[in-house]
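MexE family multidrug efflux RND transporter periplasmic adaptor subunit: structure tokens wanted.
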Amino acid sequence: MLFYIEKIIDLEKGCSMKKSLLAVSLASTLILVGCGESQKPQQAGMAPTVVVEPVTVVSHQPSKAYVGRVEAVEDVDITAQVTGYLKERHFKEGQIVEKGQLLYTIEPSSFEAQVASAKASVAQATANLKRAENDYQRAKNLLPKGNISQSEYDARQAEQLGASALLEAAKAQLLLAEVNLSYTKITAPFTGRISDTKVSIGDLLSTSSGTLTTLVSLDPVHASFQLSERERLQFGFDKYEGDGESNNGEVEVSLNLENGQQHPEKGVLDFVGNRIDLTTGTLAVRASVPNSGHTLLPGQHINVVIASTQSQPAVVIPRRAVQTDIAGDFVMLATDGNIAERRNVELGVQTPDGVIVKTGLGENDKVIVGGLQRVRNGLAVQIAEAKPEAAE
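Answer:
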């Protein structure tokens, strides 16, 4: 019985060994087939077809955009300088007012009366001075003859000097009264857009009444932004002389609005801060920008674009040639011998000619723009004729 059991075990081991050999044979066959298939694209006749374009070198003005804010060159609170009842308002809220335009009228009656009284005081003082001068002249003539004493002569002289002083005081009071009267007409100190009024006709105004309305200038405006210390040196702002010129013409300023449109008028640099902010590590910079169409308003967010006026050569490639993976942006080149090569690149700004490549490419390189989905690094490729619109 034991003999038969051992035979059965031997038969089972033999079957297992045969099955293992069969599995190994099948696996080897699959590996060989797989290796043969992976080698097929390397054959010259099976190389993928790609479309290439040479890189383009264009003249480019380096630029950079910063988030900024529009500020008014002039921004003032209109207040009352004298006490009186508001008689009339002469503007429409929100309109553009011109420099010197009448805004408010305060009831002038009491101030006109003060002016009249001051004029009368001046007339009285003038008459007194005239009389005192006549008495003094007579005293001067009589003193040498001994007809008056020295003390009487001194008294006449003092009266003449006192009358002259009183006249000057009366004139000062008249000037003050006239100034107060002029304050009853509140005018615009400069041309700009006026806000809503905070007071109504009949209100009692005084110097403690606060702001009656506000006025801001709109042409030109300031565009304020911040830039790093490295960028300050890059654009040469360390040489700025504060003369209102845009860094001696080396840079120009343009503004992009939130809707993507560009402000039609260029600006110039007119202020560079005198210290780096220790918290942010940035420098305050400001540009003066014409705003004849009043499209820019104080407080508005804008993108300030600083561009160098000196053009520099830049390598440009089609945007469709750029790929991105975990290592960053890269392109595939067709090198000598039609071998595909990966090249990591650092991209710049998009231009009408294509995207600028800061580093990674040379003037004689050719980038693959079509058939990229079948290309791998080191793979042989076939070059097809470039078309106006090459499909990926």
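The radius of gyration is 45 Å. Confidence is low (pLDDT under 50) at residues 1-9, 11-19, 21-44.

Cheers.
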